[in-house]
């Protein structure tokens, strides 16, 4: 496994970005993560001894080709996928041995999920869709402020089918974020968006990270996105082949692909 | 904070209003009918029980040839009963009606006034309410009975005639041709004693006897009377008196049948809801996956999806009960009032009915939908997110035969929606069953009446009180008639069977190979079917007036629809009855006979007389056909609307794709609508044999309460008629679904990329 330290404090046009909070305590730690699908000759190992850790408040981008295990890794961390071996410790809690009900509580208390397809509830408005997330939290973020941050204030009373794809994804992020989750997991969240909208969404994530200091993991095929992350993991055949620390991530608005 | 998913409720209700309105209407109508019916049945039972207590109904009655001696009376009373005089006269009111007139009784079987007042003068009479209504008589009218004019002063009900049976062995009550009335005791006493029937009623001294003890005591009294030398001409306990208990038997079978039928409809609607929910979950799989991934629990989602069926059922139950208690009783009261002579009933809230119309539908709805939801939600969040909604995702596709692409496509649509189509089939079967029941009852009765008239062996049958020669014998042929009883296990009671002792060379039954020295009998086919007896069977009979028991061997079955009859040689029957060899008490004749003493004639039966009961049955059931037609069409419509719409909704995206590919609406409807049309038509046709079996099964239950045997007759034209009504209902739905296909936008395929 290749391990590098990032060196760029400046983006290509010279704008500066805050350095990573690498000195923060470890928030996520996985060790010797194994996961296989199928049985017998058809058995495929999708995670093979994956070991890594993340500090609180970091943005981590996971890259890799299809079938490399990145979504499985994300789902395992999110408590959606049972692992065959290894440990996953999130915020001091070992979730790898939890029963389904405890995993449900873990997701309820600590996680926010954003998917490629927004999966909004069609007969709830933007605000109500975000309330779906708010309901799960004891200490949710302030709704109006979040709507402003998401750029959805004007659209709060619209139904999903009255929104553009980008606005729908903002709403999905709002739904995940209003819980003020310690960990935000994003699976190909820009996969269905055009270039400009994708950049806007990534910028939004960046703002969120700076405002609310959530740890964010982004799984993507889109390599340039790694430039905005504090950590970049590359997976191949279920193994981490590159683990980069980027001390000088660039602003999302500067990303190009 | 309240669960924000609740906000979907109202919007879901509005956006799927057609679907929910249809289910709501079906549930509400079903619950209203059940609630109204049960409320009226309960009201009828309450008033019946109360009236029986207040009016001191008899525990049994008997008639005798000659007055009862005081010694015989005292001996019987020693057994623990009090015997009351219960004489009556039976007089023709016109050519086709008979009145049984009692003096107003002071100790038992007391009169309940419905309208008007009691008779006070010698020329006054109070008449049974139902007979007066059926015969078109009103207070103030004057009728002439036996040459005596009597003015009707009021309408009444008598506890021993809640059902107007002229004879206890009659197949059906007959309020059109038989009625009861009361006159003052003084009026009755002034009438000639010659044609008065010596009647007696008895009541048990101990009012707390068990049913078994009551039966034993009734038998003991009869035995005592016989032992005292009383010549009984009739003896019947209240329990076996159809005039008293037919209403109990009727309600006893109608109420559970109605409960079962309506519960079945609710059950089907619960399945419809389960299919709707199941389909919704399939459509919302990714959203559910996201919610579960976000931390929503399965219990929260289960409650969310369960809230709609629970709410719809609760509102239906509330409204259904309101309609049931406020609107339906008038309808069902008419059904009771046109069949039975009861004091006016009051409708009160009945706890059992309330339970059946609120808790039971709710429980059925919750259990079925809970199980469906629990199974659907058992999948993991990832499975929902990936839309892997079937447990066995590696199952192989059903191999289809080499048929055209369109046919194969339609078969795939049918296989994809098999749960919806199966529910549709069950619903169509139930609706067709209700429809067949409603439409068949009138032709069935008419057919039976026609067959009785057609099979009449003579134009006149005379039953005599004692042997007598007619003044114009002509073609008259003597016979012996006796009413014996045999045990009928399915109803756990004795039924009366007419034994006809015929001449060996009877010209009225030329086909019957009777012989004087033969020791076997022939059964009418109705009796054979009712008892399940075939040639060679041995049957036990008892003479209810002598307690003499006999066993006879069945030699064969005779095609005779006139009643439950046993045919044997006159000599054999006379021997069976311990009569002289030349004894007789009846005539077959093709002409009207005249007797020197007209009082010797007990009954004259003509083919028209035998068919009279048909009028009452047709009157009792004439409201059934439109009610059944309405119920069936509602079930057809609701199920077809909800389930066929579901098929289109489920495939909206693919229909949109087909439009993008260039398919025209006509071609798309060939693929999707014709699949549904095939299932509807197939269900309508394939359910017919099941419907026939169901009707036969139901009529087996109906036979249990009838004294006769009503053969099941389903005219052939009913089968295509039912298919036509079902298809006509579907045509409108088909049009709506075609419009729906037209409305599916091309953009759906372009927007829904997930």
What order do the helices and strands come in, and which of them pair?
The complex is a heterodimer of chains A (257) and B (754).
Chain A: E1 2-5, E2 26-37, E3 44-55, E4 59-63, H1 70-77, E5 85-90, E6 93-94, H2 100-110, E7 111-115, H3 126-134, H4 143-150, H5 165-177, E8 183-187, H6 195-212, E9 215-219, E10 231-236, E11 239-245
Parallel strand pairs in A: 1-11, 4-9, 4-10, 7-8, 8-9
Antiparallel strand pairs in A: 2-3, 2-5, 5-6, 10-11
Helix pairs in contact in A: 3-5, 5-6
Chain B: H1 7-15, H2 17-54, E1 60-64, H3 70-77, E2 81-85, E3 88-94, E4 97-103, E5 112-116, E6 124-128, H4 129-135, E7 142-145, E8 148-157, E9 178-183, H5 185-189, E10 196-204, H6 211-227, E11 232-237, H7 242-283, H8 285-294, H9 298-326, H10 328-337, H11 351-376, H12 381-385, H13 405-416, H14 418-454, E12 460-464, E13 477-488, E14 493-502, E15 520-524, H15 525-531, E16 538-542, E17 549-558, E18 565-569, H16 570-576, E19 586-589, E20 601-605, H17 607-610, H18 613-621, H19 624-650, H20 652-661, H21 665-705, H22 718-743, H23 747-751
Parallel strand pairs in B: 4-9, 6-8, 14-18, 15-17
Antiparallel strand pairs in B: 1-10, 1-11, 2-10, 3-4, 3-10, 5-8, 6-9, 7-8, 12-19, 12-20, 13-14, 13-19, 15-18, 16-17
């Amino acid at each position: 496994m290749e391990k590098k330290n990032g060196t760029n404090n400046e983006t290509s046009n010279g704008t500066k970005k805050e350095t990573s909070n690498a000195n923060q305590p470890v928030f996520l730690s996985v060790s010797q993560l194994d996961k296989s699908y199928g049985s017998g000759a058809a058995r495929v190992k999708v995670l093979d001894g994956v070991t890594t850790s993340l500090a609180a408040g970091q943005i981590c981008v996971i890259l890799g080709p299809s079938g490399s295990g990145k979504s499985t890794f994300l789902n395992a961390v999110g408590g959606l996928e049972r692992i065959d071996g290894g440990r996953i410790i999130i915020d001091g809690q070992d979730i790898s041995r939890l029963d389904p009900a405890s995993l449900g509580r873990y997701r309820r208390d600590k996680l926010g999920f954003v998917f490629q397809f927004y999966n909004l509830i069609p007969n709830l408005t933007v605000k109500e869709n975000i309330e779906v997330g708010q309901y799960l939290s004891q200490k949710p973020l302030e709704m109006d402020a979040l709507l402003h941050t998401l750029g959805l204030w004007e659209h709060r009373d619209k139904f999903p089918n009255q929104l553009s794809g980008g606005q729908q994804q903002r709403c999905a992020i709002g739904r995940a974020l209003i819980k003020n989750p310690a960990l935000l997991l994003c699976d190909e969240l820009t996969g269905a968006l055009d270039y400009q909208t994708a950049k806007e969404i990534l910028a939004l994530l960046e703002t969120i990270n700076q405002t609310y200091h959530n740890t964010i993991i982004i799984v993507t095929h889109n390599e340039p996105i790694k430039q905005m992350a504090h950590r970049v993991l590359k997976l191949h055949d279920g193994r981490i082949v590159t683990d980069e620390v980027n001390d000088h991530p660039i602003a999302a608005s500067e990303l190009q692909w | 904070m309240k669960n924000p998913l609740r906000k979907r409720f109202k919007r879901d209700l509005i956006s799927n209003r057609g679907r929910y309105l249809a289910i709501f209407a079906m549930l509400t109508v079903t619950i209203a009918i059940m609630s109204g019916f049960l409320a009226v049945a309960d009201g009828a039972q309450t008033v019946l029980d109360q009236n029986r207590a207040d009016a001191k109904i008899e525990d049994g009655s008997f008639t005798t040839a000659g007055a009862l001696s005081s010694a015989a009376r005292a001996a019987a009373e020693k057994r623990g009963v009090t015997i009351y005089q219960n004489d009556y006269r039976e007089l023709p009111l016109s050519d086709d009606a008979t009145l049984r007139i009692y003096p107003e009784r002071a100790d038992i079987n007391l009169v309940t006034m419905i309208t008007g007042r009691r008779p006070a003068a010698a020329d006054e009479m109070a008449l049974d309410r139902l007979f007066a209504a059926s015969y078109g008589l009103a207070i103030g009218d004057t009728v002439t009975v036996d040459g005596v004019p009597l003015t009707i002063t009021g309408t009444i009900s008598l506890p021993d005639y809640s059902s107007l049976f002229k004879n206890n062995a009659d197949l059906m009550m007959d309020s059109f041709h038989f009625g009861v009335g009361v006159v003052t005791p003084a009026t009755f006493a002034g009438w000639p004693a010659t044609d008065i029937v010596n009647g007696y009623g008895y009541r048990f001294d101990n009012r707390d006897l068990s049913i078994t003890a009551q039966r034993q005591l009734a038998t003991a009294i009869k035995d005592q009377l016989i032992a005292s030398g009383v010549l009984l001409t009739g003896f019947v306990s209240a329990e076996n008196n159809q005039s008293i208990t037919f209403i109990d038997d009727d309600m006893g079978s109608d109420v559970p049948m109605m409960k079962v039928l309506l519960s079945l409809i609710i059950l089907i609607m619960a399945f419809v809801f389960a299919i709707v929910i199941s389909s919704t979950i399939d459509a919302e799989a990714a959203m559910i996956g996201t919610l579960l991934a976000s931390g929503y629990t399965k219990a929260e989602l289960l409650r969310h999806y369960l809230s709609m069926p629970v709410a719809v059922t609760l509102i239906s139950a509330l409204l259904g009960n309101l309609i049931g208690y406020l609107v339906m009783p008038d309808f069902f009261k008419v059904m009771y009032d046109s069949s039975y002579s009861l004091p006016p009933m009051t409708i009160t809230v009945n706890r059992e009915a309330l339970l059946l119309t609120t808790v039971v539908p709710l429980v059925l709805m919750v259990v079925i939908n809970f199980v469906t939801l629990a199974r659907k939600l058992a999948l993991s969040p990832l499975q929902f997110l990936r839309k892997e909604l079937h447990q066995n995702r590696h199952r192989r596709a059903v191999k289809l035969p080499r048929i055209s692409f369109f046919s194969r496509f339609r078969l795939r649509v049918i296989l994809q929606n098999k749960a919806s189509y199966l529910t549709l089939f069950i619903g169509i079967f139930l609706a067709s069953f209700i429809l067949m029941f409603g439409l068949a009852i009138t032709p069935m009765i008419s057919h039976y009446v026609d067959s009785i008239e057609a099979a009449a062996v003579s134009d006149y049958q005379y039953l005599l009180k004692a042997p007598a020669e007619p003044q114009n014998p002509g073609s008259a042929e003597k016979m012996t008639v006796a009413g014996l009883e045999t045990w009928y296990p399915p109803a756990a009671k004795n039924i009366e069977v007419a034994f006809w002792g015929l001449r060996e060379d009877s010209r009225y039954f030329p086909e019957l190979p009777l012989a004087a020295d033969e020791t076997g009998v022939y059964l009418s086919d109705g009796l054979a079917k009712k008892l399940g007896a075939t040639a060679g069977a041995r049957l036990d009979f008892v003479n209810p007036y002598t307690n003499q028991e006999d066993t006879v061997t069945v030699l064969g079955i005779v095609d005779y629809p006139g009643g439950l009859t046993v045919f044997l040689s006159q000599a054999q029957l006379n021997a069976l009855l311990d009569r002289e060899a030349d004894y007789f008490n009846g005539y077959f004749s093709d002409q009207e006979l005249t007797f020197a003493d007209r009082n010797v004639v007990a009954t004259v039966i003509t083919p028209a007389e035998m068919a009279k009961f048909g009028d009452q049955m047709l009157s009792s059931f004439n409201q059934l056909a439109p009610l059944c037609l309405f119920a069936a069409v509602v079930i057809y419509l609701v199920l077809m609307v909800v389930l066929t719409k579901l098929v289109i909704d489920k495939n909206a995206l693919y229909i949109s794709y087909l439009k993008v590919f260039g398919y025209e609406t006509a071609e798309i409807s060939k693929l999707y609508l014709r699949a549904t049309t095939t299932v509807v038509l197939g269900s309508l046709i394939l359910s017919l044999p099941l419907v026939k079996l169901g009707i036969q099964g139901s009529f087996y239950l109906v036979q249990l309460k009838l004294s006769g045997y009503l053969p099941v007759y389903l005219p052939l034209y009913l089968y295509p008629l039912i298919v036509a009504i079902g298809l006509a209902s579907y045509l409108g739905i088909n049009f709506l679904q075609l419009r729906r296909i037209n409305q599916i936008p091309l953009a759906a395929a372009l927007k829904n990329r997930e």
